[in-house]
Design a protein that fits this description.
By secondary structure, the protein is mainly α. It contains 5 helices and no strands. The longest helix is centred in the C-terminal third of the chain and has 45 residues.
Length: 154
Amino acid sequence: MLNRTIKRAILGLLIGMVIGDVIALILSYISHDEMIMGQSMVDRFGSQAGALLMQTIFSGIYGAISMAGVSFYEIDDWGLLKTAVVHCLTIEIAFVLIGLYMEWLRPDLAEILICCLISALIYMIIWLIMNARYKAEVNGLNRLLNEKEEDNEE
């Protein structure tokens, strides 16, 4: 399990880095701002390149935490609800901590709660879609198994 968790974390790191930079570029384009990073970030990290590097690193860390957290689903003693709640909370806490540090979020409780609620709803939608997909796969495998058993009985 540790090897799979490390592989997931590395994949999440890379995906997070790319997604973070793409989001920064899109927001920069939408806002018609020449600077990808805000002035306070540039001042804090010494240059626009430094701010972008930190953005990339922390986006990667968030991606790594999110992907490594999928390993919670492999803990046999945990039920599906507990696993989903722990994974979702891990992602939420990481987002808030990194978001506050990287100024993705303002230190405003209402804004943080709204972001967490939206994130939790998106998590739930994705979870429901994946759960339905897995149930369909299991049902298909069970159907094939039943057909094979019927063929063997004849």
